[in-house]
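Late entry, arginine complex.
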Amino acid sequence: MSWDGSSFPEFNADCTSLLARYLSRQMYDRLKDKTTKNGYKFLQAINSGVINQDSQIGVYAGDAESYDLFSPLLDLVIEDYHGFSKDDRHRSDFDLSRLSISNPDPDGEFIVSTRIRVGRNVADIPLGAAMNSSQRCSVETLVANSVRDLKGELAGTYYPLKGMDDGVQRQLIKDHFLFKDGDRFLAAAGLNRHWPEGRGIFHNQEKTFLVWVNEEDQLRIISMQQGGDIQAVFERLLTGVHAIAETVPYLYDRRLGYLTSCPSNLGTAMRASVHIRLPKLALDLPAFNLVAEEHHLQIRGVHGEHSSSEDGVFDISNTRRLGITEIDCVQELYQGVVALINKEKQISTGPVDKTPGPV
Ligand code: ADP
Ligand code: ARG
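Prediction complete; structure with ligand written out below:
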């Protein structure tokens, strides 16, 4: 679908994005000519959701100012996604002493792997959708220099995407370490301009600590490992996040927390996930979805967002990231995973709904 922005966008009857839900004609008329000081236009902010009618959210910010200037729309999207109102204020908390978890699957029966990531962007530089080529390259240099100083278990190497061997790139994606290219949601938001320039990945020797550079956010800091030791994954992440903060000033807003390209990632910008084998729940979708909803969990496929599940293995993560702390995100994942494992164990092997898995 193409759209030139000259009139109110048409949304298909089956479009369920938050953009379609909240963008009224009156709001469109009020915002359509607005542009931030970095030159990011309202029409760019909504382009991805107009072009990709299967979007869940459909809007991207181009800079910190987007969250103010386009607030008539973004505040409604944020409130709907995170349950965070205009009068709420985000608070960060990295205090591990408040975390009360253990490995939910010590025998390794269900959890294949655990991954926790945060998104970060650099203060005083536009976000990916509005930055120019030289700003993108300066972010790459800043981050590549910062990760060069990481010590001990975190020490590793930065690999620019430009010039990376195709086979190496494919294998990194297949093994869940690297982002895919060509994401149509990001492309329509202007986040893939000048690809692969300025993009890359840092990882330590074990590939348990990684940093993606200039994908959807300027930094995605990731800790991951096989099995269900959520606490170890979280501790490693925090060590890395704090170490990089010594040389990279993160973009932070007093109300919205860490600012990100997509409003779904605001606040903690944290997605804590497990790849978990739930073959019985996969065949009992009402029960699966009920537990997921009760625990504010999102269900994705095993090859990332917009992919499908394979062999009864799902990516389960915290849905909410804003208005709850980092500790809460991890605690929420833990409790939800415990509930899912209990449900999986309870399900009898009687007649089941054979419809394909969610996602
Ligand atoms: P994000 O928004 O967190 O970057 P994506 O859904 O785009 O997430 O996934 C990015 C990559 O991370 C994909 O390859 C996905 O399979 C992988 N991934 C996510 N969670 C896990 C996990 N718990 N274990 C292993 N790989 C994971
Ligand atoms: N823009 C896409 C959509 O609306 C992605 C939304 C959430 N995911 C993300 N990676 N920001 O469906």
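The beta strands are 111-120, 156-160, 200-204, 209-213, 219-226, 252-253, 257-258, 270-277, 297-300, 313-318. Will revisit in the morning.
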